[in-house]
Amino acid sequence: MDLAAAGFSRIWTIARNVFLEVVRDRILYIVGVFGIIMVMAIALLPEVAAGTENKLIIDTGLAAINLLCLFVVVFVGTGLINKEIEKKTVLVLISKPVSRLEFVLGKHLGLSLVMAVLITALITVMLSFLAISGVPFQLNLMLLAVLFMFLEMVLLIAAAMMFGVITSTVLATLMTLAIFAVGHETRNILELDRIAESESFRRIAEGLFLVLPDLERLNLKNEIANGFVAPPSGGGLLENAVYGLIYTALLLTVTVTVFERRQF
C-alpha cells in the first residue's frame, strides 16, 4: 500500500508540473480567442442564416472548443516526452526513483487536467454568451457534449504522446492530426469497403477500421446542436465512453512499452 501511495505521489507531482506549465503559458490566450469567435458568431450568423442561426451559433461554439483543444493537444502533447528526450532532461527524471510508467502516466494526467480546465472555461464562456444573447440551449445536453469531447481529447493526448516517443515532434504532430481527421471518417471507410470491388482495398479498409480509433463514437456536437441526443454510431453513450477509455489505455500501454525500450 505504501508503494502504491508513493507511486501515485510521483505521478501526481509530474502531472502537477505539466499542468502548471501549460496553464500558465496558454490557457488565457485560448479563452480570449474563443471569446472573440463567439462574439463574431453571434453578431454575424443571424445575418446569413435566418431561421437557423441558433443552431449554427451552438454548432460553431462547440466546433471552436473542439479545435482549440485539439490545438493544445497536438502542439503540447507531442512534445511532452519528446521535449524531455531532446533536452536530455529525461535522464535526470528517470534516474530518480521514478519509473517510466509513472513518468508517462504523470505526463498524460497533467495534460488531461489542463484539458478539463480548458474545456470547463470555454463552455462557461460559451454558455454565458448564449444566455446573454438569448440563444436557447439545454444545459444537460451541452455538458454531455463537452464530457465526450473531453474523452476524445484524453484519447488524442495518448496518441500524441505515443507518436512523440516513436518519432520526431514534427512527424508526431502530423500523425496526430491525421488520427483526428481519419478517426472521424472510419465509418465512411467501412462503407467504402462494402462497395469496393477490389479485394485488396477491402482488406486495407477493414484493417484501418480495426486499428484506427472511431472518434465519431465520442462526437455529440451535431446531436446537441439539433437539440437531442441519439446514441452516436457504434453503440450507446456508456458503451462509447468505455470504448474511448479502453482505447486510451491501449495507446498508453504502447507508449510505455516503446519508452521503456528506448536508450538515452
From TrEMBL:
<feature type="transmembrane region" description="Helical">
    <location>
        <begin position="109"/>
        <end position="131"/>
    </location>
</feature>
<feature type="transmembrane region" description="Helical">
    <location>
        <begin position="241"/>
        <end position="259"/>
    </location>
</feature>
<keyword id="KW-0472">Membrane</keyword>
<keyword id="KW-0812">Transmembrane</keyword>
<feature type="transmembrane region" description="Helical">
    <location>
        <begin position="165"/>
        <end position="183"/>
    </location>
</feature>
<dbReference type="Pfam" id="PF12679">
    <property type="entry name" value="ABC2_membrane_2"/>
</dbReference>
<feature type="transmembrane region" description="Helical">
    <location>
        <begin position="27"/>
        <end position="45"/>
    </location>
</feature>
<feature type="transmembrane region" description="Helical">
    <location>
        <begin position="137"/>
        <end position="158"/>
    </location>
</feature>
<protein>
    <submittedName>
        <fullName>ABC transporter permease</fullName>
    </submittedName>
</protein>
<dbReference type="GO" id="GO:0140359">
    <property type="term" value="F:ABC-type transporter activity"/>
</dbReference>
<keyword id="KW-1133">Transmembrane helix</keyword>
<feature type="transmembrane region" description="Helical">
    <location>
        <begin position="57"/>
        <end position="81"/>
    </location>
</feature>
<dbReference type="GO" id="GO:0005886">
    <property type="term" value="C:plasma membrane"/>
</dbReference>
